[in-house]
Design goal:
The protein is mainly alpha-helical and 579 residues long. 56% of the residues lie in helices and 5% in strands. It has four domains: 62 residues, no CATH class; 126 residues, no CATH class; 121 residues, no CATH class; 228 residues, Orthogonal Bundle (hpI Integrase, Chain A). It comes from Trichlorobacter thiogenes.
Amino acid sequence: MGHSFMFRRGGRYYFRVRIPEQLWEYFGGSKEIRQSLRTGTYELARLQVKVLAARAAVSFDSMVRYKASMNNEQLREIANKFLHGTLADSEESRNAGLGLRAEGDRQKALVGYSAVFDTYSKALSLLDVAATKERGLEAVRPLVQQVCEQEGITLEYGSPEYVGLTRELAKRVLEVCKVEDSRLNGDHLNAYDRGLMYAAPVNSQVVADAVAAEGGLLSAVVIAYTQEHITLKKWTAKTEQENTAILSVLLELLGDKPVTSISHRELQGFRSTLVKLPPNPRKGKGREGKTLQEVIALGLPPMSQTTVNKYLIRIASFFKWAHRHKYISSNEFEGLTLAKHKRGKQSEERSIYSTSDLVQLLQSLEFDKARPEQFWIPLISLYSGLRLNEVCQLHLTDIKDHEGVPCFSVNEEGDKEVKTASSVRLVPVHPVLIDLGLLDYVEKLRQRGSVRLWGRLQKQRDGYGQAFGKWYQRFNRSKITKEKGKVFHSFRHTFTNALKQAGVSESVSAQLIGHGQVTITFGRYGKDYIASVLLESVRLVDYGVSVAAALVELKGRIVCNNTRLGKGSASGVAVKLKK
């Protein structure tokens, strides 16, 4: 292959490819794509270019084909992919022990599937009649949008192709409900599952040939994996740095060989070697320029089991991805992560702040006009469950009324980041925060023309919360507690525990804290709870009489120090705090 896809600038290599003319509109009018290869090494750059050029050709070809009118066979293919993926995900959840948690959940799930079946059955009926067709399209629209995003295709709303895909997906949802109903009733030999049992096995040679045709060395697959996750913004800068380092360890210890030739026994050997490595094996005095085997020979203390498992889990994700995308015919890394030590219930392993900790926090907080984030961020997380970076990256536009309810909007607009797709959510502002003057503070910032809630915080590798997190840990240890497991993230666990103790349902709690729904019914088909329902649950978060008294004292200090930001606007909250 020539080098027309690669050029060098400033000591680093870049990938370059021309975009077919008929696709310019999808790239904002750009005629070519340029991307840094993040290396000045010619051999590594050439390897990356080979993979990227092949993938670009496949992607462009796919886009050109989908740009033309899609036929019924293609629509059915997409719908079938959704069907098989959904049912496979459900079985994977059962295999991983994430299915029903108690016998009583079985009936709830059956009722849920019945409701979903009725909804999509009605949608199909609406689609059959011209006068009600629009209502049918709207009923299935969220699912169609989700599938189109996953497939990377764009269909004009209301076009014959769009309507066709809507109908096909609605039919597949009905099939999902039928199969899951059978499974929940103990019939695992239903027609669908029985068909899977007798399906023809994958031809491993065909898979191997396909991988070889695209440069199937382990390094090539690692590059493809990292490029996809970087391009689709699935990783933060920190995750990218960590995963790149972890996968480079895999490459060095295993050697760059065809990925299809890697056996389970080889990977067991890799794990045995990995546990001997010290933390940060490429950093530190005396390690410069040494191979990993030479670093092991130094006899340094090995990394902890937690760190080893972090490596193994990230590598397991890589092999799972490679298997899903047909680079390998079987996942040879399966079963190689380490089991966690059993220390009792999962809920007991999470470090939450005690009542005395929270009282100590409230007694230690002081409002400083120059550093308002040090006062507000811990309180917001305590009463909303927002993650550190979610609070630190808030814009003023992210605090707004939704259906008459003041809410925090967690989103990935602009340079903001979220941990998972489920993290995008609305969380009502707790009345305690309103009473302390948060909304008044926000309004004052708006009047000044501010954009972000915390102007002093700057985005770093770990997001907007990196510097604040370091400050908080010092504050936490000096003012609140010396207990190792209690950190900023403990606010999130404390909020979650308060929801649980107040009897809030798992599905509402999951939406509030930004976790995926525990059942396929709610997760894939259920609509989000409305803001008023969420507010009722948030109102139930109450940390007891001692904390309420400390809040009254905190409020008094704000007034006495002449830094009161405004009178609370939540009816009844002030009365509650005084009790």
